Amino acid sequence: MKKFIFVRLGVCFLALINHASAFSMNSLPAELKISILSRCYNNNANEAIAVNNIMHRVIKLQKTCKDFQQALTCEVVSGLFARFSDDTKTSFLDKIIVHNNNHERNKYSDEAWSYIPSYYYSSKSFFAVCVILGGGKLEEFAHNKLVNSAFHYNDTALISLLCTEDKINLNNLHWHKAPLFFYICTVEMAKICEKKVNFHTITANDSFYPNILWRATFNKDIPSELLNFYLEKEIAIVSRPSDGQSLLHLLSLTTKYATADTNVLNKVKLLLAKNPDLINDLNKDKKTPLDSAIDVLVSIRFVDLILGSTECTKEYIKSLKEHGGKTSKELSASCNKPEECILF
Length: 344
Hints:
Elements: H1 2-15, H2 30-39, H3 47-64, H4 66-71, H5 74-81, H6 86-97, H7 102-105, H8 121-133, H9 140-152, H10 156-164, H11 187-193, H12 212-218, H13 224-232, H14 247-254, H15 261-274, H16 289-299, H17 302-307, H18 311-322, H19 328-333
């Protein structure tokens, strides 16, 4: 009898869709909302199918009206996933975060998972958080991809929530043997993550990024404001042990595909203001940053011009020269005594 009442209540609840302006779902207790919604789904014995049904129903309700969209929060929807087994929740997280595309769906051994459609980041991240709050466990690759995507889209709400709930580890190693937090893209996100990580972390000697300054300098899409944020925290400007490259050598490579000259040139000014000696620092090949920039300019091919241009590299070379940058040959010629020259 109790189940029948809930089913009838669920039907009535859905019938209110056409009268949403006169009804606010927010007025219902969270427990009642979960009970109503749970009776609206086909509780299939196959948990994978049941999870899919829940996802599709929530999406439809969210698209129906703003009342439903505002009321169906992660906290509310997470309760709908809590009853499923850990294996089901882990598989679901893996499918929506890692394998959410047509090519991968064709590889699923379980036909039930093959019906998960492709969604935009906002939907994938929403259901990922719902399942995580519902007790789902993220496998390492799915965990890293979710966090990295949140950094890419500057999803501060997701990272803040998962940090508060202690559901993510920002120190996990990601690409180039660097911690996940190296991939932060904005000052706003860095401030959220600051209490969970150590920005002064030094990576292994074979890492592409010795510390977080390297990522902030190298990525053309990271604004100079974030680099300045790190520099103000007195994070050390270090060379890369494997090849002796400095941050200015690295920035030469960035100019190859960068289109925002101002952002790159601002990074040059910030780095030289902090450490003027970088301007003619030599790598293990005895090349200066200006040498590296000239090499990049020479190496740019026609195919590369489709993706970028030479303008940023030319402006970078000009900026280095204005700050006293020289080639290794010019440094050698300026030495009064060969035995005192750092090039020998």
